[in-house]
Design brief:
Layout: E1 4-7, H1 11-22, E2 27-31, H2 35-39, E3 48-49, H3 51-59, H4 67-70, E4 71-79, E5 85-97, H5 100-113, E6 117-120, H6 128-134, E7 137-140, E8 166-173, E9 182-188, E10 192-201, E11 204-213, H7 231-245, H8 247-250, E12 259-260, E13 266-270, E14 274-275, E15 279-281, E16 287-290, E17 296-297, H9 305-322, H10 328-353, H11 357-366, H12 370-378, H13 383-390, H14 393-402
Parallel strand pairs: 1-2, 1-7, 2-6, 4-9, 7-16
Antiparallel strand pairs: 3-5, 4-5, 8-11, 8-12, 8-13, 9-10, 10-11, 14-17, 15-16
Amino acid sequence: MPDIGIVGAGVAGLHLGLLLRRQGLPVTLYSDRTPAQVATGRLPATVAHHAPTLRREEALGVGFWPAGEYGYTCHHHYVGGPRPLSFRGDFTSPSRGVDHRLVLPALTEVFQERGGELRVGQVGTDDVEKLAARHDLLVVAAGRGPLAALFPRLDGPGSATAPRRRLCAGLYHGVAPAEPKGVTLSLAPGRGELIEIPLYSRDGHVTALLFECVPDGGADALCDIDHRADPAAFRRAVLDELAAHHPTVSARIVPGEFGLTGPLDLVRTAIVPTVRADWAELPGGRYALSLGDAHTVVDPIVGQGANIASYSAEVVAEAVLEDPVLDELFCRRVARRRGEVVMGAARWSELMLQPPGHVRRLLGAMSELRGAADEFTDNFGHPDRQWRVVATPERTHAFLARHGAAR
């Protein structure tokens, strides 16, 4: 019976740990923080789980936030410019936004209740040899720790050398939900994007606003204001940005109620999209497998990070069940199986940061073709399908023709 070590207690590590414990395998999860520290810490990100991820959670018995109560059913699109566009696309099954400061501690507790071992502390490169001796397979699911360096960065699609956006993500009171309840994707060409997510947090039902700011495009001033020293100035800047560039969200602001839900409910960062090698050989001939952010870091513009992490965890767990010989051949099989979905997400995310002409035409056409808008929206849960829609002008043309666009 193989023994698995997992470094990183995010969605990737926890979903894999729970899946492996369901098979009865010994699993040790290494985290740099206790569940209590995660629960009381700063907002890590604003995250949506799409239907395939929710189905995995239900199957694992950790669907604690049912989509019927906590989910949403559609995307509201707004494209600014001289001739603004607005349209809606519906999911076939709901997605859901829940603060990961609620999700991750809850899943960690279940992992331990089901016999998984949790070890809290820093894991560095000096620990690799010891971990290789302890476990038959080491899975690295922590993108920001030193062990990510085990996996060489791959140049090419999905990888960048610098951030494409500066990110300002926060949780807010005082935004009335869209009707029907859904995410708003608002584009301000040349300036950036806004992703508004109805999200459940420790303050109840709130609104997440993620500003994707083009560097030096104007909106990135939000990333520089000291919200602790001058919360009123930060609030005014957010309201001004919404009013000037994201009117469909601005129209739902409740006067006198709008503001951050708390000082820890804002995160400002910049992400360098990165694809790394799928595996590395360790001392003694055992292997480390990259998972989640240790494998693929995507810009959150289309909300794929947690979902491809969960998908990859399922692929790894299925591969272990089928073939417990955890050698290079095993790692190659995992890489092949997850490649289309993971790289579909990476390349689609990359494309949307600077959409080419055929994608801009797609957005325009979807404002008149409801069936196309619905399928495009549902594909947020299926990035491999979405990439097949947007990869080339010919593919986008065929997609629109299938939905009745004039040839």
